[in-house]
RNA sequence: GCCCGGGUGGUGUAGCCCGGUCAAUCAUGCGGGACUCUCGAUCCCGCGACCCGGGUUCAAAUCCCGGCCCGGGCACCA
């Protein structure tokens, strides 16, 4: 057919033209009649695409996954990748999903009590069913036990080298003087670590590895260290020997029966380290899936940057609409299903991905479009004085064009009183131009300036506006004060204006301000409304 | 410097393991149109990509070698 494309194209165009001429309902009816399979196929195809690829070595009912955040900051879209994949596969295989707080660094990445709660809250908001919750700081005795076992079996030792000295030896591939000392000596030092005879930085438990491992960074990696006065938010100063990430993770993944691990590719090398422990104990290492880093265009995800911004007063808090934390997305009116869908779409790729906001917005729009009621919000209002219509006129507009059953809202026009239109539409208000005040009537612009617009009534009928292709604008007469916070990259723009008085909105509603965009109602104080912009 | 990983339209993704069915999927975006009292939604049509070079082969996005580019790791952090 291809060589004949030139002849076919006009034919196709003609047919398309004809089909478009017969109206949508009729088109569908006709199609069902002549080609009923089409509808079934379409559905089947969609479902097939949605799913995640099968998980290697996964047995129905036996998959156990976990998500192990450090509660030192709010949960964000980047973390959500590992979390959602873990949870999704647990559900897919009828398995178990574990939340484990990895709060073993009371010093550099200090956990804070509120983040334990927030993470749980955010996961629940995302629709997670959490089967078990564990907190690493409750489990120190368990880590101690395993550490001692490793020391006894000569697989680990207590090293009291100065860090710089140790690094030097390690890089050369030579053992440090403590490595080969007898077990009794090691155990004695281990006791000294626990009872406080060594101070912070003076001793560390190391796991024996291949001294010639090509990557010096995995050689003789540290498993537990001392922290003086940890003042841990959950255990205070009860414990001063704390496991490092690799040790605690390795032990817990085994102890909790984790079968599949999802984590960022930055952890690939940690797996090599952790495997030593599995080998020493003869355990089977879980199946691991490494994914790339997920970021979203123009949104800040980094915990340290966020914290700094908050401290400097640049951000309103962890849920500032400019941020990529889950609470910030929620505050903007992004639905959990949209986040889940996005992450499933991005999938298991190992390369880093930066998705565009458009992409998330498109998914979210599809979800909220049917639920969001419509209202008129006039940003930067400008009065328009209309001559030539001397009666009161009540415009009754459906709350949602596709759902008349939800009822209507009423906007009243009173002769002699101005209607307010948006400064954003100034380009349409040129003398001699015609515009339609949506659901009210058509006017001709007589004069226009930033201070006010004079217009002349033309006609009521919508059809007149449509035939002439006149543009349509939204408007209010009396409105309640309303501001919309619009995140734009690093800036948070405040749009002030008037919201139609018949808008009975409450906090958490996701609505559409017509011709402005979808917003979530953030606060309603007396008459005043604050909303946060989600997307067009 | 040393050690991993990755490069498919503007963006994201499928395909790569097991070479042909790929003149390459789907979504988003962009352009055009239909419909509609929103510049929204819906529907239709269109645009646009296999990092580069070599090799193997009848046949390469897919296998091999080399190069380039981009991420990540190299903490007594997680």
Blueprint of the fold:
Blueprint: H1 5-20, H2 24-34, H3 37-50, E1 64-67, H4 77-92, E2 96-101, H5 113-125, E3 132-135, H6 140-152, E4 156-159, H7 163-172, H8 183-195, E5 204-207, E6 222-226, E7 241-243, H9 245-255, E8 260-264, H10 268-281, E9 287-291, E10 294-296, H11 303-311, H12 326-331, H13 336-346, E11 353-355, H14 357-368, E12 373-375, E13 377-379, E14 381-387, E15 393-398, E16 408-413, E17 419-422, E18 434-437, E19 442-449, E20 452-459, H15 462-467, E21 471-473, E22 479-488, E23 491-500, E24 510-513, E25 517-525, E26 528-535
Parallel strand pairs: 1-2, 2-3, 8-9, 10-11, 12-24, 14-20, 18-21, 22-26
Antiparallel strand pairs: 4-5, 5-6, 6-7, 13-23, 14-17, 15-16, 18-19, 19-20, 22-23, 24-25, 25-26
Helix pairs in contact: 4-13, 9-10, 13-14
This protein binds one RNA strand of 78 nucleotides through helix 1, helix 3, helix 7, strand 6 and helix 9.
Folded structure, characterized:
A hairpin with a 3-residue loop joins strand 24 (510-513) and strand 25. This protein has four domains: 2-39; 57-291, HUPs (Rossmann fold, 3-Layer(aba) Sandwich), CATH 3.40.50.620; 295-368, Glutamyl-tRNA Synthetase, domain 2 (Orthogonal Bundle); 373-535, Ribosomal Protein L25, Chain P, CATH 2.40.240.10. The protein is α/β, with parallel strands linked by helices. The strands form seven sheets. A seven-stranded mixed beta sheet has the order 12-24-25-26-22-23-13. Strands 17-14-20-19-18-21 form a six-stranded mixed beta sheet. The chain has 15 helices and 26 strands. The protein binds one RNA strand of 78 nucleotides through helix 1, helix 3, helix 7, strand 6 and helix 9.
């Amino acid at each position: 057919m291809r060589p004949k494309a030139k002849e076919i194209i006009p034919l196709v165009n003609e047919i398309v033209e004809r089909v478009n001429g017969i109206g949508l309902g009729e088109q569908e009816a006709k199609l069902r009649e002549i080609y009923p399979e089409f509808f079934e196929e379409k559905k089947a195809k969609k479902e097939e695409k949605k799913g995640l690829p099968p998980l290697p070595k996964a047995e129905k009912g036996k998959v156990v996954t976990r998500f192990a955040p450090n509660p030192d900051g709010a949960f964000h879209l980047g973390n959500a990748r590992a979390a959602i994949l873990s949870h999704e596969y647990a559900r897919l295989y009828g398995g178990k999903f574990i939340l484990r707080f990895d709060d073993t660094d009371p010093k550099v990445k200090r956990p804070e009590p509120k983040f334990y709660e927030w993470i749980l809250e955010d996961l629940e908001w995302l629709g997670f069913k959490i089967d078990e919750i564990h907190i690493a700081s409750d489990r120190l005795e368990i880590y101690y036990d395993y550490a001692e076992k490793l020391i006894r079996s000569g697989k680990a030792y207590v090293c009291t080298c100065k860090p710089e000295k140790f690094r030097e030896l390690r890089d050369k591939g030579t053992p440090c003087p403590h490595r080969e000392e007898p077990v009794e000596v090691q155990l004695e030092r281990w006791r000294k670590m626990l009872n406080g005879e060594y101070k912070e930085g003076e001793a560390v438990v190391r796991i024996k590895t291949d001294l010639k491992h090509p990557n010096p960074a995995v050689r003789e990696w540290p498993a537990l260290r001392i922290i003086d006065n940890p003042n841990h938010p959950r255990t205070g100063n009860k414990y001063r020997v704390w496991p490092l990430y690799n040790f605690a993770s390795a032990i817990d993944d085994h102890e909790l029966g984790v079968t599949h691990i999802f984590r960022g590719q930055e952890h690939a090398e940690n797996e090599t380290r952790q495997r030593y422990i599995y080998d020493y104990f003869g355990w089977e290492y879980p199946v691991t899936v490494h994914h790339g880093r997920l970021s979203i265009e123009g949104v800040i995800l980094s915990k340290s940057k966020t914290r700094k911004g908050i401290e400097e007063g640049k951000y309103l808090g962890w849920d500032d609409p400019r941020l990529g934390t889950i609470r910030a997305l929620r505050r903007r009116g992004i639905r959990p299903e949209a986040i889940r869908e996005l992450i499933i779409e991005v999938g298991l790729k190992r390369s880093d991905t930066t998705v565009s906001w458009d992409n998330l917005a498109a998914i979210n729009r599809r979800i909220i479009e049917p639920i969001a009621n419509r209202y008129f919000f006039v940003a930067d209002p400008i009065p328009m004085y209309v001559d030539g219509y001397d009666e009161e006129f009540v415009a009754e507009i459906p709350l949602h064009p596709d759902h008349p059953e939800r009822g209507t809202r009423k906007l009243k026009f009173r002769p002699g009183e101005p209607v307010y239109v948006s400064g954003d539409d100034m380009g349409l208000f040129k003398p001699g131009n015609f515009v339609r005040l949506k659901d009210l009537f058509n006017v001709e612009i007589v004069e226009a300036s930033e201070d006010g617009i004079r217009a002349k009534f033309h006609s009521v009928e919508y059809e007149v506006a449509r035939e002439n292709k006149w543009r349509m604008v939204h408007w209010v007469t009396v409105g309640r004060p309303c501001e919309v916070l619009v995140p734009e990259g690093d800036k948070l723009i405040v749009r002030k204006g008037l919201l139609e008085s018949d808008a009975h909105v409450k906090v958490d509603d996701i609505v559409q301000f017509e011709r402005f965009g979808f917003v979530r109602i953030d606060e309603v104080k007396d008459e005043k409304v604050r909303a946060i912009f989600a997307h067009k």
